[in-house]
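Ticket #524: bound-state structure for manganese (II) ion.
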Amino acid sequence: MNVSFTQSAEDIKSETASYDTVVVPVFKGGELGQEGTALNKELRELLEDQIALRNGFGKTAGDIRPIDGSENTTPKRFVLVATGQAYDPSTACDAGQGKAVAAALYKHLTAVNAGKTYIAQDFDHAFTNDFSVTLADELNAADYAFDKYKSKAAASKPLDLHFAVADTEAATQDYTKRAAVTEAQKWAKDLTNEPPNKLYPAVYAEQIIQKLAPLGVKVSVIEDEELVKMGAGAISAVGQGSPKSHKPRMVIMEYDGTAGNDADAAPLGLIGKGVTFDTGGISLKPSGSIADMHMDMGGSAMIVGTMMALAGRQAQSKVVAIVGLSDNDIGPDAYKPGDIITSLSGQTIHVGNTDAEGRLVMADCMTYLQQNYKPHTIVDAATLTGAVHSIFGHTYAGVFTNDDTVWSTLETAGKTSGEQGWRLPLHEVFNNAVKHNRADLSNIGGIRFGGGSTAAEFLHHFIEKDENGKETPWAHIDIAGAAMPPGGMANGFGVRMLDQWIADNYEESATATHAQAPSAPKLS
Ligand code: BES
Ligand code: MN
Ligand code: ZN
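RESOLUTION: The complex was predicted; output attached.
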């Protein structure tokens, strides 16, 4: 797909003549932008006769109305697309709606084989720059297929899109940054779409190195035997039932885009659940819900995708990420319900259910992160519980956090990026529910102890305190539903949200203010 930005045309008629297709965005109330208005004037006969612009069209984002030109008109084809938002130069474009518009437009333009396409926008508003860049970025995101395992891939002509904007340089710069994030999201989709016979810990770790090392991310891998030796008994237990070829890996990624301005500054810490296949273990899952479990590494895909986004757009931030990669297999060596294992933190865990494996994998990653990097804030992402899946379907991610500011900034980033979280409770009751009478902890909370919150409180036991007894600010994002849309095509959920959150709060150029531990001042 080609995307370029071109100066909005003052002489709209001659400008659009060299295009095969002209897309005219229609705002709420049937309003056209400046170019659309100019076009309407120029092509009065063609457009006005056929469009009942104020006749209800334009209410729903993504509504499409194609208008074929006559034999002797250039361009051959017009496409009206409803933006779903008001024409208001004083606001920013709504990303959630941008996505709906782009998805519909992508489908239409591809189906009609649109050729050289002009997106008629305004000449003098930053609003429309933002709108065009958002639309371009979302069209780029919609341009995704996972057909590597089809013997015959469907052939469609790539789109050739030219967006009219007021400031081509600013739009191009902005788009380039957003495209880096979108590429990262596509990588997260690719990883999550891979089947479990192709993507397992050793392969996954190698792909992370291949992708991130050239972008300047330092990647190191701790292999299975080393994990056992260093005492990471929780992730090792989960991987115990796997053959040697599928044993666990812990992958550590360090990115510093602050030009080493303050070498001692604490990093932001990210953790991802990378269960490359979750059978449930001996607490076997019912067959109906197993096949989707190649997506149980969606949390790790969100985290490695975020690292790719940060490095790709050269974010001025300092971040350490760890993903715990493991299969949860069944077999003679598999860990059993009833086992008591020792985590890297030293806390012992009674395994109440081998299907509650994600929290075990995460626990050791969290300990390793804190012991080696002392992050000022921690965010983890995981397809952790069926309970959160049940609550939200594939709409929101569940967010559990010990810090109100972390929540409010994540909520904002969710709204900006169109990938949203919804806060769910941590509570002492759930914290106590994962204590055990013969071990320090249990990996399940017992009947009627809300799955998502119990899982979060289990992880909470692995968040360390500073010398003053203050817990590290931490958010756990359960993406069980959000990252597993119906139909089984991965959506790369969370890369945009997390990248946005970091851009808003942890970059030298960040505008938002954010509370951090006093030992870790804002990186500026
Ligand atoms: N990977 C699953 C959670 C999951 C379920 C994600 C359905 C997406 C869709 C996780 O490992 C799991 O099995 N969790 C159990 C925990 C329970 C045994 C305490 C669950 O939520 O049922
Ligand atoms: Mn499980
Ligand atoms: Zn799982």
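RESOLUTION NOTES: The chain has a mean pLDDT of 90.
TICKET STATUS: resolved
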